[in-house]
Amino acid sequence: MSEIAVVGIDCRLPGAPDTHALWQLLMNGDVANRVVPAERWDVDRVHSDQLRPGTMNTRFAHFIDDVDLFDHEFFGISPVEAAALDPQQRLVLQSAWRAIEDAGLDPRALAGTDAGVFVGMMASEWGAMNMIDYPNLTPQRGMGSGHAMVANRVSYHLNLTGPSVSVDTACSSSLTAVHLGCQALTCGDTDLVVAAGVNLMLSPGLSVFYTQAGLSAPDGRCKPFSADADGIGRGEGVGTVILRRLSDAIADRQPIYSVITGSATNQDGKSSGITAPNRWAQSKVMQRALDRAGVAAADVTFVEAHGTGTVLGDMIEANALGDLHRTGRNRPCLIGSIKGNIGHTEGTAGIAALIKTSLALSHRVLPPTVAPAGSNPALRLEQQGLALATNAIELGDEPVTAGVSSYGLGGSNVHVIMTSPPAAAVRPADGHNRVGVITISAHSPNALRRNAAAFADALDATDDVDVAAFCYSTNRVKSSLKHRFAAAGTRTELIRALHAYADAAPAEEPSRGRPGRLRVGLLCTGQGAQYPGMTRELYETCPPYRAHLARAAAAVDATLDTPSGLLNLMFSDDSAIHQTQYAQPALFAVSYALGAALLELGVKPAFLVGHSVGEFAAAALAEVLTLDEAARLVVARGHVMQQLSGGGAMTAVDVPADEVAALVAANPSCGLAAVNGPRSTVVSGPAEAVDRITGQLVARGAKASSLTVSHAFHSPLMAPAEQAFRDAVGEVFPRKATIPLVSTLHGRVIDGTEMDADYWAAQITSPVLFADAITAAPEPTHLIELGPRSTLLALARRCGIGSQIRTLATCAGPDDDGAGIARVAARLYADGLPTSTFGSLYDDDSLTLKRLPPYVFGDGTRFWRDADMAVSAVSAPVASARPDIDGAATTRTDTVAARVRRVIAEIGGYSPDEIEPNTLLSEDLGYDSLLQLRLVEQLRTEYPELEDASIRDLALTIKDVGDVVRYVEDRLVNATA
Fold first, then answer.
1. pTM value?
2. Which chain regions cross the lipid bilayer (predicted)?
3. CA triple 542-545-550, angle to 5 deg
4. Catalytic annotation, residues
5. Residue 402 to residue 304: CA distance in whole angstroms
6. Domain boundaries, the chain
7. What's domain 520-644+711-814's architecture?
8. Measured distance between the N- and C-terminal CA atoms of the chain, rounded to whole angstroms
9. Which of 285, 293, 314, 302 is nearest to 377 (CA)?
10. Which of 46, 96, 300, 538 is the most exposed place for a label (fewest CB within 10 A)?
């Protein structure tokens, strides 16, 4: 068989609500049994210290807590349906989700794939109790009670199209499910398997049976292979593992707990009794698994045995193990059983044993088996080549081989051979405190805060974490649900942001991500934003920016005469960066690299605007010019301007352009350099003339601010540079823009083909019509400035862009911390940007999936045997009197809407307050075909005019509550027409 990797694990077992707690319980040697909780059954009614028919000999068993809690809203299940579901279905649903996440996968990303689901279970006491309650039997109770529905429920809600199988081989059910999953992976039926086991003790029936069969321990504890072994102690819980072919897991860089190298199953046949184990069948199934794994028994370091603690069962199993291990070994084969900690969990027993073994192989420590009295001498373990692992045992650094056994009541046996994960799959954290973008999503704002708190605690708990890899994992696993949170920064900054969000209701709720609604405008910064060392921190911390800036700098260096290259000049403290011949190419390279980094992260701009020299970066990003062509032009531009004699002045005034234009017209040597807003104009020209103009404006009450410049840009003084530039660059052949361009030369949208040599030459002396460009641009949801500091965002605000438009800077100037692009990505993700390309934010060695905190489901709703307990308090029903359809439209609409909401609420088990017009019937309320059918029937009862309405009408035309209301209203109006 193929080598199969165990890549994800989740469990809720007695005393252990998750895998971390289970490991602590195992290493501590804790035992999780307790008195039967009152909500399960009245133990006094069935308990007896004497063996009497219909009684059980113990008050104790191993239980998990809060099995009635279920986050039905997360899975889009109505309260009515949730109340009818076997709690085992609920447990497996939640556990499957968490296990898939633990495997470094987004469960929603599996939708439509051939992922398979194999679930082992032994009992369905919930179903037995519901199916004989004939007066209250509903379609929901029927669907919620069947064995097959446990696996099918997972496949349905996750939209998985591979094999979906519920397995019942009694106590070996869940390990049989694993075996079948491995076979499905090996033969190519699927590429991923969800294998699970579940068991709940809802009635004393099996406990009475075990007592009457002489199998039950009076203290309710399993004591595997122990001198005081006296029977089974029952347990319950759920466990789930995610399986993939090892080659696929390694290729996808998934974390790996362990590897399954062989598995086999067989049957006892006709032994001494149908409930009696068969030593020879057990020996054969173990040998067959070893053969398939290609290893000898002597290579096995330990076996996680079935180990129930019954005298007969332990004896037969020890003998069967001895058949394989009593010869040819240098040291004994260690044996143990998790049942000593959590009891015999029946349908969950095999998967619990596999999970313990996977954790042991991953941690490279074999936990102790609980046996206070020591091993049973009658088992002659030493002669069998065995030793009971009563202490924790280090497994060393070499590869370790282990076996897992599970034997079912009735004779169905399974054995699995496992090894420690290969060295190629073990990628320890490097501990570097780097920048990352953490993303978390949930189905509601409250759920998002719960999960943010869990992540804050997880990051706070250890310093030994690769923040980049941790964040990358959240981008892959935790990003696809409706409500989104994101933060960027170092580990300390992320913890602070997570705690702040989790601990206090934010002023603004996180966005429900809607990628189609993102309209991002990119602004490319003009001259004046440069400074020594600009974007050095960003270059060091942001891989996509680093890569694109290196490309842009190389394109510039092909024609720019610098002693040590553009990057060295930019990142030095040399004030030469302010010289026009260097400033313009540097700003071009920075803007281009920032924009290219955002494009690589999945941003699809609605438009690009470049301010003066910023238009070169915009043209390159829109592919009007190639990077090399744009670099050549901008270097030529900076060079010819540098050759002009210095002097001249530029002054910004808070006066409308038309008022300034009249004064400029009287001074032919001056020009309007830029119109940056309705009252934001820049005058450029000879210093004396500019001073004269600004003096006149100040005298009228205007404010003026002189700009620090080397030349009077965009004025008639630049005419010689315009001609020199045209001579230097020759012909330019622009292409049609792939991203809408808004020209600041023309103040309107252009298609890019106008950007020929004449365009770029005219740009040197013509005014920058930034205000017109912003006005002409499509309305964005976000404006992002691409430059070493933000100068244009404030100007855009003055141009009157709406306050609802988010403005984001990619770099904060000389004090920038290098996290600008990460923060932009975080904000865009929260507003709907997918994270599928966020891997480029990280260095290659951080593209490793890390274990993340499991999803924290809601605990606000309980569903137990009395279905009424599952339904929120419903307000008084709306009066059922027929509305006067001839009355006023407003009254009619309100009445119909209220009645329809009441019907929808009552059928689904909701409060009418939860039913809003935009509430989706299927996604939000869990209205499947059965509930939709009931809705149609009830609406016909409420409104006889709808007698010919059909469920097909609903399926084809109705999506939300408002649609139902409109449907009813329209039919009522037509009925009276």
1. 0.90
2. none
3. 120
4. 171, 306, 344
5. 8
6. 4-26+62-425, 436-516, 520-644+711-814, 647-709, 874-976
7. 3-Layer(aba) Sandwich (3.40)
8. 71
9. 314
10. 46
